[in-house]
Specification:
Shape: globular
Strand content: over 45%
Order of helices and strands: EEEEEEEEEHEE
Structural class: mainly beta
Largest sheet: 7 strands, mixed
Number of helices: 1
């Protein structure tokens, strides 16, 4: 089992940047695929980005490509989400999640579904003002 704690959220003006971090407990972090989802008020939770356990492959929602970058440091048990060129529509609570069921052989669509992830953090608020 793994416990996840997000940090790095806050308020920023449109066009600004934030870097979110998600620290994981446990000794087997390197075996987990990791992801970021977000949920805005009144909206469903949506996929943002994911990274394989090795860090060799990444996946992004179309609206985040070119603006967001997911990365991980297995030595620090941490996954990051660098967010640039932020827009007011990016305002949401951002959650990280982990899966030890996804492998490097899993289909890409499996990485984008919330049902693939078993462990979730408590979320961190990101607010982007215009």
């Amino acid at each position: 089992q793994v416990q996840l704690v997000e940090s790095g959220g806050g308020s920023v003006q449109a066009g600004g940047s934030l870097r979110l971090s998600c620290a994981a407990s446990g000794r087997t972090f390197s075996t987990y695929a990791m992801t970021w989802f977000r949920q805005a008020p009144g909206k469903e939770r949506e996929f943002v980005a994911a990274i394989t356990s090795s860090g060799g492959r990444t996946y992004y929602a179309d609206s985040m490509k070119g603006r967001f970058t997911i990365s991980r440091d297995n030595a620090k048990n941490t996954v990051y989400l660098q967010m640039n060129s932020l827009k007011p529509d990016d305002t949401a609570v951002y959650y990280c999640a982990a899966s030890n069921r996804l492998t490097d052989y899993s289909r890409s669509y499996a990485y984008t579904g919330a049902q693939s992830y078993d462990y979730w953090g408590q979320g961190t608020q990101v607010t982007v003002s215009s």
